[in-house]
Write a structure and sequence with these properties.
This protein is of the alpha/beta class and 318 residues long. It contains 15 helices and 12 strands.
Length: 318
């Protein structure tokens, strides 16, 4: 197959699946709202279940839900029939996936949910199927053609299941008011964990803070600046608030007669600052946009720490 042919196939597949996603978005109705509220109000866990490709998707949806603040897990429908039904509690909600809705392995899960009045949310393309009829809430997938229609291989249908699972997860996290700080608790490692660390996690605290008063002579100010090794020093007013900062640029601008000045006369007033609760990624954005390498961290306008771009780079916030 030539590169041109491969590109044409790829574009055709993506176009078919994009049409399916557009149909899915247009078909969302009150059932989606009820599903979100049912999952939100669940006292127990969200149990995702399915077999085959739907099972793989169900496992992914469970992982996405768990990483965004919902207590969720995957139970394989076949294993459920061999003892894993005991993993499903009466306070749980079951989210069952099957394109046809006639997957025989789901029968025991459906019967179990009905026996113990466990809410059952079905995700299927057939409202009249066994799963569709049994569902307390039906999330109906559009009857969209598979990308490999001649083979009927699961392509578009699994894309729609994944997308609908993502829609549920995002709606739930927004319903909960889930914040980036909350998200960080579930992603402490890797690039994502680094991006979600706070300035307070990475900053140098009061013990390392290069700090002088407005009346401090420049000779002492230069010593504090050199000792701090941040290329800057914070200048505090008589009430303990950050009045300004001095950088190498300020020193060059006041080179003539520098040692005869005080810190307050040389400093740049009202410097950019950041709070300790801000995300480290936000600190990096400010530094990049303003072409600076250091930010002083303040609490109620009082300097409490300092963060340098090297701190962010070492932590992997890039």
């Amino acid at each position: 197959m030539s590169a041109f042919d491969a590109i044409e196939v790829g574009r055709r597949v993506l176009a078919v699946e994009a049409e399916g996603l557009a149909a899915l978005a247009g078909a969302l109705d009150d059932s989606f709202v009820r599903a979100v509220e049912t999952l939100f109000n669940a006292k127990g866990r969200i149990i995702c279940t399915g077999v085959g490709k739907s099972g793989h998707v169900g496992r992914k949806i469970a992982a996405t839900l768990a990483s965004t603040g919902s207590t969720a897990m995957f139970v394989h429908a076949t294993e459920a029939s061999h003892g894993d039904l005991g993993m499903i509690g009466t306070d749980d909600v079951v989210l069952a996936l099957s394109k046809t809705g006639e997957t025989r392995e789901l029968a025991d899960v459906i019967a179990y949910a009905k026996r113990f009045a466990i809410p059952l949310i079905g995700m299927t393309a057939s409202a009249g199927s066994a799963l569709g009829r049994a569902s307390d809430i039906l999330l109906l997938l559009p009857d969209a053609p598979e990308a490999a229609e001649a083979l009927n291989a699961p392509t578009t249908s699994t894309t729609l299941q994944i997308a609908l699972g993502d829609a549920l997860a995002v709606a739930l996290l927004e319903r909960r008011g889930f914040t980036p700080q909350d998200f960080r608790l579930f992603h402490p490692g890797g690039k994502l964990g680094a991006m979600l660390r706070t300035v307070g996690d990475l900053m140098h605290g009061a013990a390392e803070l290069p700090l002088v008063e407005t009346a401090t002579p420049m000779a002492e100010t230069l010593l504090a600046m050199t000792k701090g090794r941040f290329g800057a020093v914070a200048v505090r007013d008589g009430e303990g608030r950050l009045a300004g900062m001095i950088t190498d640029g300020d020193l060059r601008r006041h080179m003539d007669g520098l040692m005869g000045h005080s810190a307050g006369e040389v400093m740049t007033r009202n410097p950019l600052t950041i709070g300790a609760d801000a995300l480290a990624a936000e600190a990096l954005r400010i530094m990049n946009e303003r072409s600076i390498t250091v930010l002083f961290v303040v609490d109620d306008a009082r300097p409490v720490g300092v963060i340098h771009v090297h701190d962010l780079l070492r932590a992997g916030v890039v």
